[in-house]
């Protein structure tokens, strides 16, 4: 950071969403409610999967990982954003900014790879159902989950290191809600072409490659579903994939739009809205999507609520 007569930046100032106090208070209340729903929703999804033996399958093993990623991603951004909505001096120390970038970028990468892994799981379930339990055995599922976590973390570590080695000079105002990658790179007072290339490469590896694998999986899945003779069979096969496909559309769309072309990146406002989408809406919507659109999860909820109702009745008597 300190190079020659350049000033060492000890902290950054996040400009956030608004300077109007009433607007910030309203956003604080809204985001706090959404964050609480996110944490509780993902916690109950994980708890339900743990308690219901019918959900001890590869699909729900990966869903547990997805819920952990979602709540961790939201936690890496939202609590600090809530604090900054209520204070005037929105400072974040250099080390904290680097840590936030590492965790948010890493968890985002993990989610993209994990969604590709879940697409492969759905591909096997629909296209090769008789060998599903043989192919998607516990050892493979564990290795695929570990690969997701490791690949996202390594990419994030590399991006964080090369980003925070850039000389920032006296630039410390980040026009964003968090220490987001493109927002931090813009602070550099040197040419950032190499960083943009690194962002492009990592976008291809951890964003476009998983997306292409998801696309190929669903081409095969749709082709197989169309060959099913019975209408009921096609409907059942489609419902097997509907929840995952909805989450895929939500997660990949804006990420591709934001990161795949850093030189022609969208406006700062669009970047802020994208970050809000990932940090607040997506982690909240994912458990809802799986709860509403998935019969097994809905059945699990009904069973769990029935057990709790019975237990409450016994305690009351």
From TrEMBL:
SUPFAM superfamilies: Family A G protein-coupled receptor-like. It comes from the Eukaryota. It is a multi-pass membrane protein. GO terms for molecular function: G protein-coupled receptor activity; olfactory receptor activity. Its main location: membrane. GO terms for cellular component: plasma membrane. It is found in: Cell membrane. Residues 41-290 form the G-protein coupled receptors family 1 profile domain. Keywords: Cell membrane, G-protein coupled receptor, Membrane, Olfaction, Receptor, Sensory transduction, Transducer, Transmembrane, Transmembrane helix. The chain crosses the membrane at residues 25-49, 61-87, 99-120, 197-219, 240-261, 273-292. Belongs to the G-protein coupled receptor 1 family. Putative odorant or sperm cell receptor. This is Olfactory receptor. It comes from Panthera pardus (Leopard). The lineage of its organism: Eukaryota, Metazoa, Chordata, Craniata, Vertebrata. The gene is LOC109268877.
């Amino acid at each position: 950071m300190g190079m020659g007569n350049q000033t060492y930046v000890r902290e950054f100032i996040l400009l956030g969403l608004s300077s109007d106090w009433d607007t910030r208070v309203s956003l604080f209340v809204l985001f706090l409610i959404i964050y609480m729903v996110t944490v509780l929703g993902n916690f109950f999804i994980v708890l339900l999967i743990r308690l219901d033996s019918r959900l001890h399958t590869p699909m729900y093993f990966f869903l547990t990982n997805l819920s952990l990623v979602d709540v961790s991603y939201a936690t890496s951004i939202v609590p600090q954003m809530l604090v900054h909505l209520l204070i005037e001096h929105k400072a974040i120390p250099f080390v904290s900014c680097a840590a936030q970038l590492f965790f948010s970028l890493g968890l985002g990468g993990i989610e993209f790879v994990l969604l590709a892994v879940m697409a492969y799981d759905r591909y096997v379930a629909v296209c090769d159902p008789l060998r599903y339990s043989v192919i998607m055995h516990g050892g493979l599922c564990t290795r695929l989950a570990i690969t997701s976590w490791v690949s996202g973390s390594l990419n994030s570590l590399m991006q964080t290191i090369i980003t925070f080695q850039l000389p920032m000079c006296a630039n410390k105002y980040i026009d964003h809600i968090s220490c987001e990658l493109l927002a931090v790179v813009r602070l550099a007072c040197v040419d950032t072409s190499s960083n943009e290339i690194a962002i492009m490469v990592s976008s291809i590896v951890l964003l476009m490659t998983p997306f292409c694998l998801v696309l190929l999986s669903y081409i095969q899945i749709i082709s197989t579903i169309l060959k099913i003779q019975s209408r009921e069979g096609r409907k059942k096969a489609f419902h097997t994939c509907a929840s995952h496909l909805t989450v895929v559309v939500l997660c990949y769309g804006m990420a591709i739009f934001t990161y795949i072309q850093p030189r022609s990146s969208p406006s700062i406002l669009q970047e802020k809205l994208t970050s809000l989408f990932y940090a607040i809406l997506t982690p909240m919507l994912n458990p809802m999507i799986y709860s509403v659109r998935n019969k097994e999860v809905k059945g699990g909820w009904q069973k769990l609520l029935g057990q709790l109702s019975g237990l409450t009745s016994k305690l009351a008597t």
